[in-house]
Amino acid sequence: MTRLLWLPLTLLILLSLTVPGWAQAPGTITTVAGNGTASFSGDDGPATAASLYSPSGIFVDSAGNLYIGDYRNNRIRKVDTNGVITTVAGNGTASFSGDDGPATAASLKLWYANVFKDGAGNLYIPDYYNNRIRKVDTNGVITTVAGNGTKSSAGDDSLATVASLNGPITVYGDSAGNLYISEWDGHRIRKVAPNGIITTVAGNGTASFSGDGGPATAASLNNPEGIFSDGPGNLYISDYNNNRVRKVDAATQIITTIAGGGPNSPGDGGPARAAVLSGPTSMFRDSMGNLYIAEWDGHRVRKVDPTGIITTVAGTGDEGFSGDDGPATAAKLDNPLDVAVDGTGNFYISDTGNHRVRKVTAVAALSLSPAAVDFGNLSVGQTANRTVTVTNSSFVPLTVSSLSLSGPDSGQFSVSPANLNVAAGGSQNVTVGFTPTSGGTKAASLSLQHNAPGGPTSIPLAGIGLTSVAVSIPTLFSRPNATVTIPVQISGVANATSIYSYSCTVDYGTSGLLTDPTVVLDGTLTQGSGIEVNPSIGAGKIRVTVARVLALASDGILLKIRFRVSATANSNDSTPLTLSDVLFNENNPTAVITNGTFRVAAGAFGDITLDGSVSALDASAALQTDVGLRSLTQEQTTTGDVSGNGAVTAFDAALILQFVVGQISTFPVQGTSKPLPDGRGPSVALPALRASPGDRVTVPVTLSEGRDVRAIGFTLRYDPAALRFVEVVRGSLPAGAQLVVHADPAGAVRVASAGTAPLPGSGELVQVVFDVVGAPGARSSLSFDRFHANEAAVQTGTGEVVVQRVIPSAFALDQNVPNPFNPATAIRYALKERGHVTLRVYNLLGQVVTTLVDGPQEAGVYTARWNGRTTTGAALAGGVYFYQLQVTGREPFLATRKMILIK
Question: What is the pLDDT of residue 462?
Answer without folding.
Answer: 95
